[in-house]
Amino acid sequence: MITIGCATSVAPKDLQQAQLQGGSEQPTSEQTSRPLRVLSFGFAVTVTVALVLTIWYLRVRFVSAGEVLRPSAAPSAAASSAH
Length: 83
Fold this sequence. Notes:
By secondary structure, this protein is mostly helical. The chain has helices at 13-20, 29-65, 73-82.
């Protein structure tokens, strides 16, 4: 199969030269890593706040519930109140 003059062939030389001369600059690694660091830091803060709020909520729920019923005591209490 001959592909000379095909539309999918390599880009023209003037386009390649324009890209080499700085026509489309690539961002440096420092420029691309900054948004990633900000995003990672924001995610870490969000997860930390969510864990703190969850622990606080569960602690309040357990304290307000008082004593936890033992599994063996729960059915006898329900049976005595039914009679």
